[in-house]
Design goal:
alpha+beta, GIY-YIG endonuclease, four-stranded antiparallel β-sheet, 4 strands
């Protein structure tokens, strides 16, 4: 489990490495629990994205995960986004995460859901 950090410039500079890509979630403390309100990623610089984020002073905490590839960042962002949607978290970003530029990859969670919908109508009661 990721550790929530205070979402302030000094904390971001001290815990997020320079020149890494990755995924992040922003939120608040609600009754001792980290409540996610925004899920995102940076395919260029996670630190810079967080330091210049529009919600820098709106949310109190953030978590992050550094990745080696844009694809990995997209997969983790999609998982967190779907997890929040499935648990009825009220995310600010209601639109599904976009594929990294020039990669044209499909979200594996959406793809799985579509595959299940195709299979279920073909199952007959025994």
């Amino acid at each position: 489990m990721a550790i929530p950090y205070r979402f302030t410039p000094d904390v971001i500079k001290s815990v997020v490495p320079k020149n890494v890509i990755g995924t992040y979630a922003l939120g608040n403390d609600e009754q001792g629990q980290f409540s996610i309100k925004y899920v995102g990623r940076s395919d260029i610089s996670l630190r810079k994205r967080l330091l210049t984020h529009n919600y820098l002073f709106k949310y109190s905490y953030f978590i992050f995960f550094c990745t080696k590839t844009k694809y990995e960042a997209f997969i983790i962002e999609s998982k967190w986004w779907h997890d929040c949607k499935n648990s009825n978290e009220q995310l600010v970003n209601v639109i599904h995460p976009d594929s990294p530029s020039q990669m044209n990859v499909v979200c594996p969670y959406c793809q799985f859901k579509m595959s299940i919908r195709d299979i279920i109508p073909n199952i007959k009661a025994g």
